[in-house]
Amino acid sequence: MKQNKMETTKKATTGNFIFNIMVFQNGILLTCLLLIQVTIFSQNTTSEKTCIDCHKRAVKKDILHGPAVDCTSCHKSNGKEHPLEDVEGFVFLEEGASLCFSCHEEEKPAIIGNKYVHKPVSKGECLECHEVHSSNDPKLIFAKSPDLCYFCHDKLEKSIKKSAVVHLPATEEGGCVGCHSPHSSPEKKMLVSNPKTLCLSCHNKTLTKGDRKITNIDKLLKKSKVVHPALKKSCNSCHDPHASENKYLLSIPYPLGNYAPGTEENYELCFGCHDTDLLLLEKTKYATEFRDGDRNLHYVHVNKEKGRTCANCHNVHGTNEKYLIPETVKFGSWNMPLKFKVLENGGSCKGCHEERKYTR
Ligand code: HEC
Ligand code: HEC
Ligand code: HEC
Ligand code: HEC
Ligand code: HEC
Ligand code: HEC
Ligand code: HEC
Ligand code: HEC
Ligand code: HEC
Ligand code: HEC
Ligand code: HEC
């Protein structure tokens, strides 16, 4: 990005002062000519010409940075004649971010005063993202996100662009800054709010993706007596907020139909937090409460080549019934009632079968 900008800067300068180009291209003779011309130029003009007369490029974009009406609010003469070839005529009133904060005092705490500060901001590199004189953007940024962010986060750009499933807010214009502050935040990863609140700020309504309706998760959680403790801190333990190879933006593959081989690898998403014993032990008195005596009913239902997936009996976000068991589950397109009952030291279900009970 720095390079891009340097190029523009160079173009701006050479564009204005054609003589310079000639010097660089044609050598010493022209240097002499140039020196004479610049001298005449400045002698004739410094007194009448304003900064903008000679530096039109600085202010040529649509939106002017407030103070650019008075160039000396940032550039202070160092006493030398201006312009003079290869002689700097100005110093900055302050250097780096201090220059910005000399006016943007009130915004300083929000920009740099939080616990988690964006690297380029902590290094005072405001001009990696902002234009200082004029811009086509009201926030004086070179480009809108995600392009602005991709200048430096090219790895993320590649991974988003090659992913099978992308999260719309990560790709739409201005999307990145809907979730991340470009400057700093009290939240990790510079999130604009607590990660769960952030997700629910949009998932508090039914959204659509193509023809598909996406469940209103906030409503589901509010009406659920049982919320999966995995959701307590954040949604990211299962979802990638940007993009993924897996359906529903799941961070690792997870079987969603009714059947899948009941292997440990297939359910890594769950076994990141839960013990695999609930799947692997045929007989147990401790590994799960879903057992008849010591007969592990998770093992019975799940652990086989055509095993039943967790989704047959659990809703991973929240339910009204205990143990994340919903009233109905999808069997193909049928909403199959489970009629789960909690019984003394066990439970029972009707669903794929007549009522069947288990007693620990
Ligand atoms: C808000 C502070 C500020 C104001 C106001 C300001 N400048 Fe600058 N100017 C800067 C900074 C900072 C740089 C250094 C830019 C860089 O390093 O990329 C700069 C660089 C320049 C340069 C050299 C590089 C370039 O971009 O061409 C020129 C010429 C210049 N300013 C002219 C002006 C003129 C003319 C005005 C009034 C229209 C003006 N500046 C107003 C802060 C300011
Ligand atoms: C007569 C035309 C002219 C006027 C008027 C003029 N400049 Fe310049 N300015 C130039 C030229 C030519 C250069 C490039 C000199 C070089 O290449 O070293 C330049 C370079 C600069 C630079 C970068 C180098 C340096 O000197 O620091 C800044 C900043 C700058 N001008 C600011 C201003 C400001 C602020 C004003 C008004 C107070 C102003 N200029 C008025 C022609 C002008
Ligand atoms: C001399 C005072 C001054 C300096 C120095 C200054 N600014 Fe500003 N800036 C202003 C003013 C005045 C405005 C217009 C405020 C408004 O319209 O509410 C403004 C507006 C902005 C805006 C748009 C604000 C918005 O809320 O939409 C941005 C972004 C900005 N400045 C960034 C910078 C950066 C980055 C620097 C340092 C390179 C800087 N400013 C240095 C005075 C300054
Ligand atoms: C990584 C890019 C990036 C860097 C670095 C950066 N900014 Fe910004 N800045 C932005 C973006 C993007 C916005 C617009 C935010 C929005 O639209 O919500 C913004 C907005 C602003 C605003 C307007 C007020 C606001 O919060 O909307 C000011 C003032 C500002 N920046 C100053 C600075 C200063 C000072 C620095 C350096 C200390 C800096 N910025 C560094 C990207 C950046
Ligand atoms: C000028 C380069 C640059 C630009 C532009 C930039 N970033 Fe960064 N960003 C960085 C660097 C450097 C890091 C630190 C990386 C590291 O430590 O591994 C970083 C880290 C981050 C982090 C992780 C912070 C953490 O605590 O781990 C997030 C989130 C982030 N950037 C978001 C953004 C967003 C959103 C944008 C666009 C508005 C953006 N960045 C634009 C350079 C940039
Ligand atoms: C829907 C909200 C959301 C959007 C939109 C979003 N992010 Fe993120 N981003 C997050 C969350 C949440 C995390 C933290 C993930 C974690 O902690 O595992 C994150 C993490 C990051 C990180 C740190 C990476 C890491 O592995 O630690 C970077 C860099 C980043 N985002 C950049 C971006 C950029 C660039 C965009 C725009 C293309 C963007 N984000 C859009 C929510 C979002
Ligand atoms: C700015 C609004 C917004 C925020 C914030 C947001 N989402 Fe989304 N999300 C959407 C929209 C819109 C869709 C549907 C369109 C799409 O993704 O293509 C969606 C879709 C989804 C999907 C379904 C994707 C699929 O293909 O099946 C999941 C899962 C999801 N979001 C999780 C999250 C998580 C986790 C967070 C917090 C890190 C989050 N969302 C934050 C707007 C948002
Ligand atoms: C324990 C893992 C896990 C956690 C934590 C999690 N999800 Fe999910 N999410 C899933 C799975 C698995 C699916 C696939 C569909 C299903 O089983 O409901 C899914 C699907 C979704 C969908 C798509 C629903 C649809 O109807 O297409 C959205 C939106 C979503 N989750 C948002 C969230 C939000 C917001 C959070 C945090 C409040 C969150 N998830 C936390 C595992 C999780
Ligand atoms: C981020 C960690 C985490 C992940 C990932 C996770 N869980 Fe959980 N889950 C918990 C915690 C913590 C509890 C409460 C303590 C316990 O029962 O182990 C829990 C409890 C449960 C319960 C019992 C709820 C109750 O009310 O008794 C079920 C059922 C469940 N998880 C299913 C799943 C399924 C299915 C998956 C995979 C899609 C999964 N979990 C992934 C953390 C997680
Ligand atoms: C046939 C229905 C069914 C299937 C399929 C199923 N569970 Fe369960 N699960 C239950 C029942 C019923 C309970 C509650 C047992 C009790 O406490 O009485 C339970 C409880 C749990 C618990 C709480 C701790 C425990 O074992 O008692 C976790 C965690 C859990 N299941 C995870 C999973 C995971 C992960 C999958 C998929 C690999 C899965 N379940 C598949 C019915 C099922
Ligand atoms: C997706 C279909 C399906 C669902 C849903 C289902 N079961 Fe079953 N269940 C079976 C099948 C099939 C068997 C017979 C064992 C086998 O062949 O795998 C079985 C067997 C049982 C048995 C007898 C195990 C034994 O000792 O042989 C009990 C008890 C049982 N289920 C309880 C439940 C409970 C409680 C639920 C609800 C939480 C439930 N089932 C949901 C398909 C299902």
Key terms for this structure?
16 helices, binds heme C, alpha+beta
Average pLDDT number: 88
Largest β-sheet summary:
3 strands, antiparallel
Helix content: 25-40%
Rounded radius of gyration (Å): 32 Å
Strand element count = 19
* Binned strand content: 5-15%
> Which ligands appear in the coordinates?
heme C
Number of helices: 16
What spatial form do the alpha-carbon principal axes imply? Answer: elongated
Strand arrangement across the biggest beta sheet: 17-18-19
Q: Tell me the count of domains.
A: 3
The separation of the N and C termini measures 64 Å
Give the low-pLDDT segments.
1-46
Question: What structural class do the secondary elements suggest?
Answer: alpha+beta
Tell me about this structure.
By secondary structure, the chain is of the alpha+beta class. The chain is 31% helix and 14% strand. It has helices at 2-16, 18-26, 28-45, 51-54, 96-103, 108-112, 119-122, 147-150, 154-162, 168-171, 176-179, 195-202, 217-223, 268-271, 277-280, 297-302; strands spanning 63-64, 75-77, 90-92, 116-117, 134-135, 165-166, 184-185, 207-209, 212-214, 226-227, 243-244, 291-292, 295-296, 318-319, 328-331, 334-337, 341-343, 346-349, 356-359. Strands 17-18-19 form a 3-stranded antiparallel β-sheet, with no helix packed on it. A hairpin with a 2-residue loop joins strand 15 (328-331) and strand 16. The longest helix is centred in the N-terminal third of the chain and has 18 residues, at 28-45. The protein is elongated. Mean pLDDT is 88; it is low at 1-46. The site of one heme C has 19 residues, from helix 3 and helix 4.
